[in-house]
Write a structure and sequence with these properties.
The protein is an alpha+beta fold and 205 residues long. It has a domain of 129 residues: GTP Cyclohydrolase I, domain 2 (2-Layer Sandwich). Helix content is 37%, strand content 24%. It has a five-stranded mixed sheet with strand order 5-2-3-6-7, with helices on both faces. A two-stranded antiparallel ribbon has the order 1-4.
């Protein structure tokens, strides 16, 4: 599988032995003026390590394993949209969460991907230290590389705890980012159709 600017590579950082994060976390608790040996904090370093390893598990994810051959030949040239995909990520600047929804669309070129694979791709990139702008672009580039469709569009809407809990402390501000590739960038009617579908209310069942 050809890489698109390094997007689809497996990024597995060097990791020290299990427990190394926990050991550092115990020291951090002391630096904060806490007692890591008190009842409520005894297991906190280990729980923190487990949480961080899960929240950054996207580094070890592999696109080929995620897709797992679920690409099918279909005579389809109509827009495919999966919207309101929940995601949670960690801002790389403060290691605080940001969360929101991704809306992902592609215009097929005789090939479609299993619908469940799109949220899995979103999770793969969200479960890394991120900025929203890069997250949006990586999702779009990955689908463009995997499917070679006529185009891909991705919109991410999120709220950032680094803005809500610290700094400017704005509780209701949101951030919207978009990445439009191929037909979504060059054809206004394709882009407009995508935007109109995203603006529609969530599906009710």
């Amino acid at each position: 599988m050809k890489e698109a600017k390094g997007v689809v590579e497996v990024l597995t950082p060097k990791r020290r032995g299990e427990g190394s994060i926990a050991a550092h976390m115990e020291q951090i608790l002391k630096e904060l003026g806490e007692d890591p040996s008190r009842d409520g904090l005894i297991a906190t370093p280990v729980r923190t390590e487990k949480a961080l390893r899960y929240l950054t598990s996207g580094y070890a994810a592999n696109v080929e394993q995620i897709v797992n051959g679920a690409i099918f030949n279909e005579q389809c040239d109509q827009l495919v949209v999966v919207k309101d995909i929940e995601f949670f990520s960690l801002c790389e600047h403060h290691l605080l969460p940001f969360y929101g929804k991704a809306h992902v669309a592609y215009l097929p070129k005789d090939r479609v991907i299993g619908l469940s694979k799109i949220p899995r791709i979103v999770d793969m990139f969200a479960r890394r230290l991120q900025v929203q702008e890069r997250l949006t672009l990586q999702i779009a580039q990955c689908l463009q590389e995997v499917l070679d469709p006529q185009g891909v569009g991705v919109i991410c809407e999120a709220r950032h705890f680094c803005m809500m809990m610290r700094g400017v402390e704005k509780q209701h501000s949101g951030t919207v980012t978009s990445s439009m590739l191929g037909a979504f960038r060059h054809r206004k009617e394709t882009r407009d159709e995508f935007l109109s579908l995203v603006r529609n209310p969530p599906l009710q069942f």
